[in-house]
Specification:
5 helices, mainly beta, 478 residues, 29 strands
């Protein structure tokens, strides 16, 4: 299935309405596509007198919340803000719900940054795990949930919604109104933990308090990063944050009920078993003779994985032995509904000849996840690979915008940017900050506001303005 990059990418906020059209749109494929040529707009950011965010012309920001504030439930807003998604409030166009990860581990420092730093507590039944080496202190990771008035740009309610987990980095929204929070660790039960970690947890956006922490073990135990779901099939796609990571998909036994299990698989290229997609130079362990060229479509096959709870934390090694391809630190992921059909975009933070990052695009089969999949194999391509810091550096979280672009959060050294990447390869900056990474980019359901986090010490921003005018100005400056 070939998709035209001239087709606009639609955001996940519109997926619930558009999902019934996916099959129809998937038949509108075109046989030829122009190559993506990365080019950088010369648009300049305006320095912020407050020293928080430098923004593109026509944009403004509001600080929604910060680490250390007291939430509505009396607990402290944790630090290490990370992956996040926005959900509509039924019957109320002025408000939306943000569910936000906190990438905190189990150290003393993490506890000082946690929701329990001031001595607060919750019913122990809602704690997934505790640290026996620290007096059975609750693990510090998890999620918080915020009710945001998009019109006034104020938080009207906030609370801890997932507790006792560890290193909750990214995740992804579901079409049925919940957030999948992923643990970026494979910590085993032992001296520092009662239970194994490295799982995905589901947090309904509508919850007004902590949820029961149930690990979705069928989605595998590994160093999870992000998740994306195709609403037409209910299939979950998953990234892994290691230097030799796999790209996974989960075929659920019951659509929308991930707790009921399913099949976990890893992506492999039909023409090359165990392909190395990282494009690393020889001194980094790569093979230049096997370098993957951008904008070339590769047919995909999926290999089944067993023992997915992986007590030996060796799932990716066993997948590679079966022929799965490896990627360079799979991180952010976004479902995009293009005019020709669905696509899954995902980033590889340290991929590429320059090691600055790659953005990949996975194109599902017309018969995705069924016995007929080989009749029209799914495909994957290297959408764009950064060759210079002016394009992007260490791309991390991504989201599809309602205006047809990918929004990329950087996790590099020094200055970090939020950048837009248009379908034709135009790249332009939206925001810049110094000293920490951007993460959690997502749009309000009406598309007017971009929410984004600065991880340390932990701040959530609402960025607003004339997005269409900014895009025109960026193109004029290219």
């Amino acid at each position: 299935m070939l998709l035209s990059r001239r087709n606009l990418i639609r955001s996940a906020a519109s997926v619930a309405i558009a999902a019934p059209a996916l099959r129809l749109l998937g038949a509108c494929a075109t046989a030829t596509r122009p190559p993506v040529t990365p080019r950088v707009s010369g648009i300049a950011l305006r320095p912020d007198p407050q020293g928080l965010l430098d923004l593109a012309p026509g944009l403004s920001y509001t600080v929604l919340s910060r680490h250390g504030q007291t939430m509505s439930d009396g607990l402290i807003e944790p630090s290490a803000h990370d992956g996040m998604a926005a959900f509509p409030v039924e019957g109320d166009a002025d408000r939306c719900i943000l569910v936000r990860n906190h990438e905190l581990g189990i150290s003393d420092e993490a506890h000082r940054d946690s929701a329990f730093a001031a001595g607060g507590s919750i019913d122990p039944v809602f704690l997934y795990d505790r640290n026996p080496a620290a007096g059975d202190r609750p693990f510090s990771g998890g999620t918080t949930t915020l009710l945001v008035n998009v019109r006034t740009r104020k938080v009207e309610r906030s609370h801890l919604s997932l507790a006792g987990t560890a290193v909750n980095c990214a995740g992804g929204p579901t079409p049925w109104g919940s957030w999948l929070s992923c643990e970026e660790t494979d910590l085993s039960a032992g001296e520092r933990a009662h239970k194994p970690h490295g799982f995905v947890f589901e947090v309904p956006a509508s919850s007004k308090g902590p949820v029961m922490p149930v690990p979705l073990t069928g989605l595998g135990r590994f160093v999870h990063e992000a998740a994306a779901i195709d609403p037409a099939t209910g299939i979950v796609y998953l990234t892994e944050d290691t230097g030799d990571s796999l790209f996974y998909r989960f075929l659920p036994n019951a659509r929308g009920e991930l707790v009921k299990g399913g099949r976990l698989q890893a992506l492999a290229l039909v023409e090359q078993a165990g392909a190395d997609t990282r494009n690393w130079t020889a001194d980094r362990g790569g093979d230049p003779a096997l370098r993957i060229a951008p904008n070339r479509l590769f047919d995909v096959r999926w290999v089944d994985l067993d023992q997915v709870e992986s007590p030996g934390a060796d799932l990716r090694m066993r997948g590679r032995a079966k022929g799965a391809a490896i990627f360079a630190r799979g991180e952010g992921m976004a479902f995009a509904l293009e005019a020709a059909g669905p696509a899954i975009y995902f980033t590889c933070t340290s991929g590429g000849v320059a090691g600055l990052g790659q953005v990949w695009r996975y194109i599902p089969s017309l018969h995705e996840g069924t016995a007929r999949e080989t009749d029209a194999p799914p495909q994957v391509e290297l959408f764009v690979e950064s060759t210079g810091q002016d394009q992007f550096e260490r791309c991390d979280n991504i989201v599809a915008s309602p205006r047809g672009e990918l929004i990329i959060c950087e996790d590099g050294d020094g200055d970090n940017f939020v950048r837009a990447v248009a379908p034709d390869g135009l790249i332009y900056p939206i925001a810049r900050e110094i000293g920490s990474e951007f993460c959690g980019a997502c749009f309000s359901p009406d598309g007017s506001t971009l929410f984004v986090n600065v991880q340390r010490p932990g701040t959530t921003f609402a960025i607003h303005g004339d997005w269409s005018a900014l895009r025109r100005e960026a193109r004029n400056a290219a």
